[in-house]
Write a structure and sequence with these properties.
With 907 residues, the protein is mainly beta. The chain is built from eight helices and 57 strands. The protein has five domains: 320 residues, Deoxyribonuclease I, Chain A, CATH 3.60.10; 96 residues, Sandwich (Immunoglobulin-like); 158 residues, no CATH class; 168 residues, no CATH class; 67 residues, Immunoglobulin-like (Sandwich). Strands 26, 28, 31, 33, 34, 35 and 38 form a seven-stranded mixed beta sheet that branches. Strands 27, 29, 30, 32, 36, 37 and 51 form a seven-stranded antiparallel beta sheet that branches.
Length: 907
């Protein structure tokens, strides 16, 4: 066991000099409630009383981290009034505490609190000005009287408004502005020690508000000192962006497996909600940080020093839905300050190189060269080089900033740059990056719009593209068959890719004609990439369409079919193919838009990887005593949860309640692993107190993390009245056992499939059962592995007039020499490069006294039918709006000879 003294010694030793402080933030998130009638536990708010699982696990996490100061979020007022919080503090050796009041707040139940081993010289809370109401929860502020230094740190706890709506983001922005204004009002500078930590809920996208959004609470009252709306309020997902001077540095704590997730303790791949911001003075000193996950805490030699022995693996999960975060910070060393300035305060995305630069200045000339590292908190707005060298005898160095698109259509976003150098406190500078993501826009005829997806790394639709038919997944070029959209390639050369299963994926982007010309023809080019090629896999394909006025025009010359004839068993990068086509006969007026759409279609036989968990075979009734009665459970090849997360629960058809104990899959005996990757587990359940009941009816439920995956019964149907399946009605196997010979006549699935819908329940009469093995007549299947296809290097050109043969229309207005000008053919919808493509109405004798005029139409055109008896004077007969459908108009053929013609124009 590592004592507190030993842990503190290790901390100080790592700093060589100075006074160390361990600080933690922990959103306790939830109170785990176990229903009195049995069943899975569920989350409520609060820590509860000592002895309850959630209280004990919260205590175990804090004890293991062993921080000097802990900020706790979601402390319920009930826990304060009942003494649960004070009991927790006393049990952990925290003598001092401060709890933010719940007056003038919108959430009067949940509060933010500090526990400390050191006294506070001051303790207060950040609130709205008198007479106004803005904050969900008040921000507590404490100044800790830290022994051994005069540089006592100011620590601010936050728990910002959650949610992704405009009203939620506006309230978070106001809460952060109040915090930033507090630092300014207190005269806190970059050289002071301050720490801001807690649950920032940095979700959704940036947004600038010039008016109050809808959805605010009726009692919401914004302080007039913010001068809103004269001064807009901007919500940013980057909390450091709310500060001007000083700008804090956001730390980057990780779990010991390098995950940055702090939310959803059932996984390690969730979002990062819980953050640390520290002053430049602290950021420039030695420091270390960690996100605590008890599942990964297996040894005192892993991660930062901790107290005691590792707790149970499920401690973090039971304690909260958030992971705790902690940091070892140094408070007392002093370094001279760097300064950083930008040549411009704002710049658009994709600005030319050199549009904006960052300069870093030393506090005094150095006799030796100084290497300065420049980092950005934005993945695509970065310095052209990560380091600069300030030569000996110089004060300043300068580098350019690259401002690539981030493929997210949002408001202006702040990007914070940090300059660091050994022996100096860092400097921060904030750049406002103006969004340029959105509809692609032609501003002049002849223009080419290109999209190479440079810097696109996946995770979301790359604005202005919209996808459907699949989720966004992390970039993967290693043969992982998980289906959905992804960016194939790197942040330098990305693409828009898809792996299909049984359903197509569709993506399209909108283009606007902002020129003064009617767009009559387009050239569309792109590279089709088979970035994942599977030998013998499904034959996926890619097709393209042009969408104009909701009409769809297929572009067959842009189609791409994935290759499957690769070396046996190989999964490699495949081929690429340059695609190009010219689309003529268009009439897209200035101010109008059109879409380019791509459809990724999986080949026959492909499908999602089975991830089901299900009962595959069971035996419950013998002729004599209960012997070798068992249940067999199968997990699909795509199932990735721990076995302990799966439970088998027995249900009594007489009343619908649970009986006996639940059975973790981790207690089952592993059996066969099929060629398809299905895993089979079995367990004998024949004890004097909890053998499997004999039906008429009884049943089983299979759950994963408390969620019912399967609820079946035998000997009839039952409705559960307790436990996880409470209120659910079972699926009846419609089979029974009566006095069977032990070792024979089980009930199980037969057929060929990968999951239960493809199997059939069967009673294996007088056949030995096959616990741990596939059933008689059963084959487990795996769908054909899909190919990966992507689009890249897209170029869409607004062709000048219909000049498709390379000769200007002023010299050659009829490219195909059919005596119809290119401009007219664009209106008619015929092909200006094909002399046989001519627009011709037809007239036919439909009866002895009637003739019918017929002609095709295009959307966006107007068709005026005219008649004449002498071919000189023409009179209008009718006007039709083009719909894309043919039109037929009957006329009487009695009387003198009549001529008809159709005049076509743009609507």
């Amino acid at each position: 066991m590592i004592s507190r003294a030993a842990a503190l010694f290790l901390l100080l030793a790592s700093f060589a000099q100075g006074v160390g402080l361990r600080v933690a933030t922990f959103n306790i998130g939830a109170h785990l409630v176990v229903p009195s009638g049995g069943g899975a536990a569920y989350f409520d708010y609060g820590i509860g009383a000592p002895g309850q699982p959630d209280y004990d696990k919260v205590r175990d996490v804090i004890a293991r981290i062993n921080a000097d100061v802990v900020a706790l979020e979601e402390i319920h007022t009930t826990d304060v009034n009942a003494g649960n919080l004070s009991t927790l503090a006393a049990s952990l050796g925290y003598t001092y505490s401060y709890i933010a009041p719940n007056l003038n707040t919108f959430d009067a139940s949940l509060r933010v609190a500090f526990l400390s081993r050191f006294p506070f010289t001051t303790a207060t809370s950040i609130d709205a000005p008198a007479g106004f109401k803005e904050l969900s929860r008040l921000h507590p502020v404490v100044k800790v009287d830290l022994p051994g230094t005069t540089k006592d740190p100011t620590i601010i706890g936050v728990h910002l408004k959650s949610g992704t709506g405009s009203d939620d983001r506006f309230r978070r922005a106001v809460e952060m502005k109040r915090l930033a204004l507090y630092l300014t009002s207190q005269g806190i500078t970059a050289e002071d020690n301050f720490i801001i930590l807690g649950d920032f809920n940095p979700s959704a996208t940036n947004k600038t508000f010039t008016a109050l959004p809808s959805g605010l609470p009726g009692s919401f009252a914004l302080g007039t000192d913010l001068n809103f709306p004269t001064v807009p309020i901007t919500y940013s997902t980057n909390p450091a962006a709310y500060f001007t001077n000083p700008i804090p540095t956001k730390l980057d704590p990780r779990q010991v497996n390098n995950s940055a997730a702090t939310y959803n303790t059932s996984v390690t791949t969730g979002p990062t909600y819980d953050l640390f911001l520290v002053s430049p003075a602290i950021a420039g000193r030695p420091r270390s940080q960690e996100i605590y996950n008890s599942t990964l805490d297996t040894s005192n030699s892993i991660g930062l020093p901790k107290a005691g022995a590792p707790p149970a693996a499920d401690t973090s999960y039971v304690a909260s839905d958030h992971y705790a975060v902690f940091a070892d910070l140094e408070m007392d060393q002093d370094y001279p300050n760097l300064s950083a300035t930008l040549s411009a305060q704002s710049v658009p995305e994709n600005a030319p190189p050199g549009t904006v630069t960052i300069s870093v200045t030393l506090p005094a000339i150095s006799a030796t060269a100084t290497t300065v590292t420049i980092s950005s908190d934005d993945a695509v707005t970065v310095p052209t080089t990560g380091t600069m060298v300030i030569p000996a005898g110089s004060l300043t160095g300068t580098v350019s900033i690259n401002t690539a698109t981030n493929f997210t259509a949002n408001d202006t976003r702040p990007v914070v740059f940090t300059a660091t150098a050994p022996g100096y406190d860092p400097a921060n500078a904030a750049l406002q990056v103006i969004d340029a993501d959105g509809t692609y826009r032609f501003t002049a005829a002849g223009q080419t719009i290109t999209e190479n997806f440079t810097t696109f790394a996946g995770g979301h639709d790359p604005a202005p593209w919209i996808t459907s038919g699949g989720d966004w997944l992390a970039m993967d070029d290693g043969g992982n068959a998980t289906t959905g959209f992804r960016a194939y390639g790197t942040g330098i050369d990305g693409s828009l890719g898809f792996i299909g299963n049984s359903a197509p994926g569709v993506t399209n982007a909108t283009f606007a004609n902002d020129s003064a010309n009617i767009l009559t023809a387009l050239k569309i080019e792109f590279t089709a990439e088979q970035w994942r090629a599977v030998s013998g896999g499904s034959a996926g394909s890619l097709n393209a369409e042009l969408i104009v006025n909701e009409g769809q025009q297929s572009l067959p010359s842009l189609a791409f079919n994935a290759a499957t004839n690769l070396p046996t068993g190989s999964i490699t990068g495949g081929t690429s193919s340059a695609k190009s086509t010219i689309v003529s006969g268009l009439a897209i007026a200035p101010g109008s838009t059109f879409d380019v759409r791509f459809t990724f279609t999986p080949g026959p036989g492909s499908g999602p990887v089975p991830d089901e968990v299900f009962i595959n075979e069971f035996h419950y009734d013998n002729a004599d005593g209960d012997v070798n009665e068992f249940v067999e459970i199968v997990t699909g090849p795509g199932f990735a949860e721990p076995l302990s997360s799966v439970k088998l629960i027995l249900y009594n058809g007489d009343g619908g309640a649970t009986y006996g104990s639940s059975h973790d899959l981790s207690t089952f005996t592993p059996g066969a692993v099929t060629p398809s990757g299905h895993r089979i587990y079995s367990k004998v359940i024949t004890t004097s107190s909890a053998s499997i009941q004999n039906g008429n009816p009884d049943g089983f439920a299979v759950t994963v993390r408390g969620v019912v995956r399967q609820f079946i019964s035998y000997g009839g149907t039952l409705t559960a009245t307790s436990g996880v399946a409470n209120g659910l009605t079972s699926v009846n196997t419609s089979l029974t056992q009566t006095g069977e010979i032990a070792g024979q006549a089980s009930i199980g699935y037969t057929g060929s499939a990968g999951s239960p819908p493809g199997f059939t329940w069967t009673k294996f009469s007088e056949i030995p059962y096959t616990a741990g093995q596939p059933n008689t007549g059963q084959t487990f299947t795996y769908p054909l592995q899909p190919q990966g296809i992507a689009i890249d290097n897209l170029a869409v050109t607004f062709l000048i007039d219909t000049d498709l043969d390379g000769i200007p229309d002023t010299l050659d207005p009829d490219d195909d020499n059919d005596n119809i000008t290119d401009a007219s053919e664009a209106i008619f919808g015929s092909n200006p490069l094909d002399a046989s493509s001519v627009y011709r109405p037809t007239i036919s004798q439909s009866s002895p006294t009637t003739v019918t005029l017929s002609f095709t139409t295009l959307t966006g055109r107007s068709y005026r039918v005219e008649s004449s008896t002498d071919l000189n004077i023409w009179s209008p007969v009718s006007t039709q709006s083009g719909t894309g459908a043919p039109v037929s108009i009957p006329f009487s053929n009695a009387g003198p000879q009549v001529f008809y013609r159709v005049a076509v124009g743009y609507e």
